[in-house]
Amino acid sequence: MEKGALFGKYEVGRLLGCGAFAKVYYARNIQTGQSVAIKVINKKKIAGTNLMSNIKREITIMARLRHPNIVRLYEVLACKTKIYFVIEFAKGGELFAKVAKGRFSEDLSRKYFQQLISAVGYCHFRGIYHRDLKPENLLLDENGSLKVTDFGLSAVKDQIRPEDGLLHTLCGTPAYVAPEILSKKGYNGATVDVWSCGIILYVLTAGYLPFNDPNLMAMYKKIYKGEFRCPKWMSNDLKRLLGRLLETNPKTRITIDEIIHDPWFKKGGLFKDKGPEFEFQFYHDCYSDDLDDSLKARFVGLFNESYNPFVDGEKFLSAMSVDKIIASIEEAAGELNVKCRRRKDCVVDLEGPKGDFIARWRLTS
């Protein structure tokens, strides 16, 4: 790709990375000066494959996601020969490059793992399953915060087979794939993501893979049987958590909700049991479901940075002050052309353009 102004809007710079079908460049928004990354997909290389449907699904999924630990999609551009994803620029690069230099301390591993679980839990709450979580798909921003990227293999609830309630597409990276995917009998998208998170946590704290073999089938056999050992330097709490994350039976494997209550996981502050509980209700018969979804997305994106956004269905927690939370609700409502009215007892009502009631947001401590 030649350097220069793309669509008169982005000044394209150095190559950041490349794959079989796409290249990623650093770029700068000419008007705002904002640094971005632009993923360039060559249409000729994906012609005659099923990758176009994957790309369309990835666009749809990323457009729905707004979370501090997920790379944000700003816009999609296209011409006759190429598709351009304009996404958030993660200055720190891949987490893989950092861990390749040596294993992390448990405290640093916990920080990244907490951020990963926050992002994955948010996706699951939205009915989105990544299915290819690995250190290469985890980036770091300039502040060292983790960012999940590459939703090219992700799935949504619409892809679940109604007859068994499971996904069936074989996908993922061999060393990170869950045993139930290998069984080819269908799998739950949430449990396979949890397995991959377990592999990632092991790699961060051990410095190597729990299941590894030069022979692919031999490695799959180890995965299927759950044959791994934790190094002696790991704490007992971490070993117990890894044992639950890498449980071969998906029905008894630890869930996201159980992870956030795990003793090892809770250390470090991100998921402390404090702060007001932010509870809200939606009335779908009063306005459009699309707007309801937009409000949910805006809300979760605003507040899960400081607390767990996905416990108990539609109850959310935040360590922010009540005034800051309500101010953020008002800001999000304004962007969606929705009226926001404060009531007594920390209640906020949202109304449509015609004064019709949309939703009630209630803060409880």
Automatic annotation (TrEMBL):
<dbReference type="GO" id="GO:0004674">
    <property type="term" value="F:protein serine/threonine kinase activity"/>
</dbReference>
<dbReference type="Pfam" id="PF00069">
    <property type="entry name" value="Pkinase"/>
</dbReference>
<comment type="similarity">
    <text>Belongs to the protein kinase superfamily. CAMK Ser/Thr protein kinase family. SNF1 subfamily.</text>
</comment>
<keyword id="KW-0418">Kinase</keyword>
<feature type="binding site">
    <location>
        <position position="39"/>
    </location>
    <ligand>
        <name>ATP</name>
    </ligand>
</feature>
<keyword id="KW-0723">Serine/threonine-protein kinase</keyword>
<feature type="domain" description="Protein kinase">
    <location>
        <begin position="10"/>
        <end position="265"/>
    </location>
</feature>
<dbReference type="InterPro" id="IPR011009">
    <property type="entry name" value="Kinase-like_dom_sf"/>
</dbReference>
<dbReference type="GO" id="GO:0007165">
    <property type="term" value="P:signal transduction"/>
</dbReference>
<protein>
    <recommendedName>
        <fullName>non-specific serine/threonine protein kinase</fullName>
        <ecNumber>2.7.11.1</ecNumber>
    </recommendedName>
</protein>
<dbReference type="InterPro" id="IPR017441">
    <property type="entry name" value="Protein_kinase_ATP_BS"/>
</dbReference>
<dbReference type="InterPro" id="IPR008271">
    <property type="entry name" value="Ser/Thr_kinase_AS"/>
</dbReference>
<keyword id="KW-0547">Nucleotide-binding</keyword>
<keyword id="KW-0808">Transferase</keyword>
<keyword id="KW-0067">ATP-binding</keyword>
<dbReference type="GO" id="GO:0005524">
    <property type="term" value="F:ATP binding"/>
</dbReference>
<keyword id="KW-0464">Manganese</keyword>
<dbReference type="InterPro" id="IPR000719">
    <property type="entry name" value="Prot_kinase_dom"/>
</dbReference>
